[in-house]
Amino acid sequence: MPGDSPVRLWALSDLHISHPRNREALDDFPAHPDDWLILAGDLTDGEQGLDWLLGALTPKFRRVVWTPGNHELWTVPGRDPAFRGVALYERLVAIARSRGALTPEDPYPVVEHQEGRILIAPLFLLYDYSFRPPHVRRDQVVRWARETGAVCSDEYLLHPDPFPDRESWCMARCESAAARLAACPPDVPKVLINHFPLEEEHAVLPRVPRFTPWCGTRRTRGWHRRFGACAVVYGHLHIRKTEWLDGVPFQEVSLGYPRQWDPSRGIGAYLREVTLAPEDAVSL
Question: For helices 50-57 and 86-98, what crossing angle results, to 10°?
Answer without folding.
Answer: 30
